[in-house]
Specification:
By secondary structure, this protein is of the alpha/beta class. It has 11 helices and 9 strands. Helix 6 links the parallel strand 3 and strand 4.
Length: 301
């Protein structure tokens, strides 16, 4: 009976979160009525933004996010498998198949972390095209995450080749990446952690060649009410507990869950992409697993 009561209480908490998280987000982000989530105004530049459901100074957010990923770097891949039941691998495989890179493609993988996208990209070019001329530059603002990616690549055929390189850089200011120098720009499960999403997308437009493609894989918003309640329960009650059990870090995973809820909806993010100068095909995104994640894509025409 006690166990049943605990589950019932947890379910009630989850339903309340499901009903109220948008209200919480509205109070914590300080986004004016006519400004889409993820965009900024001049007054916001020197004021506050969201860090999960907390209200923080914009100047503080980068350090707070950096601390989160420094904490989770060593357990990042293990936790991804535990949290998604391995489904994140299927999403990433589909992401690369949707890209369908050709021989010699130059990829810029931003927030590249532990190298999941970069590795899949090079494997695709090798296995599909027997191509060793494709290359990827992995960028991450967090040196701890990038170090894990570098170590992972050391055990692959791509180690010590000119096919992969690593650079610590801020996605909002890719100072070391020239204009119109890459064919494809990817960012997977990273853009929601950036302070100014619109600046990230504008930088992507700058560095892409004409005809180049912007691709973003990110957690998104579930519209189905039944699935949404289940997803909220899993997100707020199960994932932080897994973080505590596997990574000994509940707080970081609580933030990661909250950051998903703060990210713009699919239509709002598609508008940010178009406002940055990209052309989109159809609505501009593809939902994965009921909208738990989505692939957004745009072309520089």
């Amino acid at each position: 009976m006690q166990a049943f009561t605990s589950i019932a209480r947890a379910s009630k908490r989850s339903v309340l979160r499901s009903a109220n998280w948008r209200t919480v987000a509205a109070y914590t982000t300080h986004v004016p009525p006519n400004v889409a989530p993820g965009q900024t105004t001049q007054s916001q530049e020197s004021t506050k933004t969201h860090f999960g459901f907390r209200n923080v100074l914009e100047s503080e957010k980068e350090q707070l996010v950096g601390k989160v990923f420094a904490n989770v770097a060593e357990k990042y891949d293990i936790m991804n498998d535990a949290m998604s039941g391995g489904v994140h691998r299927l999403w990433k495989d589909h992401f690369i198949r949707s890209m369908a890179p050709g021989p010699g493609t130059k990829l810029l993988d931003v927030a590249g972390g532990t190298g999941d996208i970069a590795m899949r990209f090079l494997d695709y070019c090798k296995n599909i095209h027997n191509d060793s001329s494709a290359s990827v530059k992995m960028i991450d603002i967090n040196p701890h995450m990038l170090k894990v990616g570098e170590q992972r690549f050391q055990a692959t055929p791509y180690a010590n080749t000119n096919q992969v390189s690593f650079l610590v850089q801020n996605a909002e200011d890719l100072a070391d990446i020239p204009d119109e120098s890459v064919d494809v720009y990817t960012i997977a499960f990273g853009i929601r952690n950036c302070t100014h999403v619109d600046r990230v997308v504008k930088e992507a437009h700058r560095v892409l060649k004409k005809g180049g493609r912007f691709m973003c894989l990110e957690f998104s918003h579930v519209e189905n009410p039944v699935v949404s309640k289940i997803y909220d329960f899993y997100s707020f009650d199960v994932i932080p507990a897994l973080g505590q059990m596997i990574a000994n870090d509940r707080e970081s995973y609580q933030y990661l869950v909250e950051s998903i809820r703060q990210f713009p909806t699919q239509p709002a993010f598609a508008k940010i992409i178009r406002d940055a100068g990209f052309s989109t095909v159809g609505k501009g995104w593809e939902d994965l697993t009921f909208g738990v994640a989505a692939i957004h894509s745009g072309f520089k025409i």
